[in-house]
Design brief:
rod-shaped
Length: 57
C-alpha cells in the first residue's frame, strides 16, 4: 500500500487543526458500488439455490 493522498503527515502534524477529509476518486466509488452489487446478487442467488434444495427434501 502506498501513502494516503492528502494525508496529515506534513508540518501541521502536531497542530490542533483537523485534517481535511480525503475524497476518493469517482472511479473508486464506482468500483466499490459495482463490487457491492455483484456481492449482493451472488448472495441472493446462493440463498435461492439453498431454498430450492431444501424444498426438494
Amino acid at each position: 500500500m502506498g501513502p494516503v493522498k492528502g494525508g496529515c503527515g506534513g508540518p501541521n502534524r502536531g497542530s490542533t487543526l483537523r485534517c481535511p477529509h480525503v475524497v476518493p476518486e469517482p472511479q473508486e466509488l464506482t468500483m466499490a458500488d459495482l463490487a457491492f452489487v455483484v456481492t449482493t446478487i451472488a448472495l441472493f442467488a446462493l440463498v435461492a439455490f439453498v431454498a430450492k434444495g431444501v424444498a426438494k427434501l
